User: Fold this.
Amino acid sequence: MSLADKLAQERRARLAAERLLELKQAELTDANRKLGRHALALTKRIGATQAEIATFRNENEKVKSDLNTANEKVEQAERRLWHSIQAFQDGFAFFDNNSKLIGANTAYLNIFEGVEEVSPGVSYVRILQILTDEGLIDTEELSADAWRATMTERWMSPAPEPTVIRLWNDRYLKLIDQRGHDGDIVSLALDITATVHYEEELRTARERAEAANRAKSAFLANMSHEIRTPMNGVVGMAELLNDTSLSEEQRLYANTIKNSGDALLVIINDVLDYSKIEAEKLVLHPEPFDLEACMHEVVMLLQANARDKGLTLLVDYDLFMPTSFIGDPGRIRQILTNLIGNAVKFTNTGHVTTRVTGVPHPEDNTVMLHIAIEDTGIGIPEEKIQHIFGEFNQVEDEANRQFEGTGLGLAITERLIKMMDGEIWVESELGQGSCFGFRLPLVVSNGSQINAPELPENLNCVMIVDDMEVNREILNRQLQRLGLKVLAVNNGAEALEKVSDEVDLVITDRNLPGMDGLKLARSLRHAQRNMPVLLLSSDPADSRDPAIREIFSGVLQKPLPRGALFTALAGLNTSTMDVETSPAPTDTTPPPSTGSPPQETPKQAGQSDQRPMRILAAEDNRTNQLVFRKMVKDLNIDLQFAGNGQEAVELYQNFKPDMIFMDISMPKMDGKEATRTIRGLEQESGRRIKIVALTAHAMDGDSEGILAAGLDDYLTKPLRKALIHERIMDNKPDDVAPLTDEAGRLRATG
Assistant:
C-alpha cells in the first residue's frame, strides 16, 4: 500500500472518529439537558411535598386544639347538666340495659332515706325490695310481694306506663320511665303531692257543688210546684171569670189578675229554664214539625198584645222554602216567642216582621235557615248591643225603663240556639228599630210540604189594598211567584180609581185610612164590580161575623199563612169566581156568657140514647178541683174526682173512664205510680185509655219522665181551658154523646 493510500485511510479514520465524537457529545448534551429537567421537576415536587407536610402539621395542631376545646366544653356541659339534674326538685336516675343504676340525683336518693346500698350498680329489683323492706312505700291493699311483682312486670315492659306510688310520709310520686334504643332507661320520680291534694280538694268541692246543685234543683222543682199550684187557682179562676157577665170595670180587674199571673209564670219559666241550662239538664227532643205553622201559632198568641198597641205583625216566609223540618218544635217556638215577643214589647208604633229564608244543602237534606225579626221600635244604643245576651241584663235607659222582665229571655234564647248548632246576631239603630236574626241548620222532613195551588183559569190579575208597604211587598212577592199579575194600592179611594175589568180578585186590609175595607167592598158592589173580595184582618172575631162574611168572599187572618192564602185562591170557583162556602173558623175560647151558667153535664137534644163521655180527674188540691170543674162545665161529660193516686186506681176499676187527667204530686200514691198500676190492670183487660198528666213540677216535667211512667201527654199548671177542651175532644170515643153545642159538635165529631 502506498503512502498516499495509507494517509488517505488514516484521514478517513480520523474523520470517522471526529464524527463519532461529535455524535457522542450531542447525545451527552441531550442527556444532560434531560437530567437537568428531571432534577428541576424533582426539586419542585420535593418543595410541594414539604409544603403539604407543613400544612398537615398545622392542621393536626388545630385539630388537637379544637379537640381539646371540645373536650373541655363537653366536660363543662356534663358538669352543668349534672348540676341541673341535681337542682331538680324531682327524682332523676339512669339505668343501663341490665337494670343497674348508673347514677341518680339527690332528690332520687332522698326517697330512700339515706340507705347506702342505693348507689351506682344496684339493680332495680333490689331497689323495690329496699322500698318494701324499709317501709318506705305504702302498698295500700297489695301485699309487699304482689306490689314488687306488679312493679317489676311494669319495668320489664317495652314501654312502661306511668304510675303513681304513695310513700310512707303521704307523699305521692309519679314514676315515668323511658327506655332508650340501646336498652338504657331514664327514670323520673315526679312529686305530685300538691296536685293530688288539690285534686282531692276539687273533688270535694265538686261533690259539694253537685250536692248544692241537686238541692237547688229540688228547691226550684218544689218552689215551682208550690207556686204553680196556687197560680192555677188564680189564673184559672181569672180566665173563668172573664167568661161570665162582667161590667167593664170588673173585666178590667179580671184581666189584670190574669195578665199579672201570666207575667209571673213567664218569670218562673225563665228562671227554671235557665237553671236547667246551667245544670246541663235541658235536653232537645227533635221530631217532625211544620215551621211555618209554628211561626204563625206564635204570632197569633202575640196578636192580642200587638193589636192593643196598634201594631201589625207580619210573616214573610220564602215561597220556595220547605215547611216541614225535624227539630224541637217546643224550643223553637220558645225562641220565636222570646224574639217576637221582645219586638212587640219594645215597639210602640209600626210593625214587626218575621222573615224566613234559607240555603238548602241537598247532599245531607238540610237547610240553613235564616230567620230575622225586624221591628220599628225604640232600638238599642250601639254600646249596649254586646251586653243584651248576658244573664239578667237589660238596656238601662229612660226609653225602656218602663218595660219589665227578668233579663233572661235573650240569654236563654242564645243558649238554645247554640244547643241547636246555630248562631244569633242583632243589628239596631237607636230610635229606628232593631233586627234580631239567627241561623239554624235543620233537616228537611219527609212530611207534606206546602205546594203551589192550582189556580182558576180566569184568575190572572189581583189587586192588593193595604196602607202598609211591607205587607204589600210580601203579598206582591207571593202572588207574583204564582204567576199572577199584581196591582198594589195603599188606600180604598185609589183602589176604586184604578180597579178595572182586568182585575179578577181584590185582597184588602180591614183597617185602611179614610175608607176601611168594609166600605171599599160595599163600594165595589155598588159600582157593579162583581169580582171576589178577600178581607185581611187581625181580629179573629171578623171571621165569625155574619155581616162581614156576607160582604166578603172570605176572611184571611193576619199574619197570613201561606197555606191559608193558597187554600183561598184554590177555592175560588172557576165559573162564578166566588169562594166556596166553608165553615167559619172557630175560636177555642168561648164568648163571654150573658146568662146563667149552664149545667155541669148538659144533655144534648135528641141524644138521650147516648151516654156522656166519662172523665176521671185525679187531683188532691180542692182549689184545682174547682178550677178544673169550672173549665169543663160547658162540656157534656160525666166528671169524677179522685183525691189521690190510690183513689184514682179504685175509680178506674169502678167508674171505667174514657180518659184520665192525672196530677203527678199526690199523697199516698203519686200520679206516676197510679199510672203504672192502671197500665198493669189494662194489660189484663186489653183496654187502653188516654192518661194526661197535670204537673206543677216544671223541672221534672220533661216528656221522657212522663212517658216512661206510662202517661201519654202532660199539661203544665196553671191549666188552660182551651187545652183541656182540646185534649178531651181529641180523645172522644165514637159511641158517646156530643160534647157541646152544634158548632162544637161539628168540631168534636170531625
Q: What stands out?
A: Residues 91-191 form a domain with the Beta-Lactamase fold (CATH 3.30.450.20). Residues 395-406, 574-607, 742-750 have pLDDT under 50 and may be disordered.
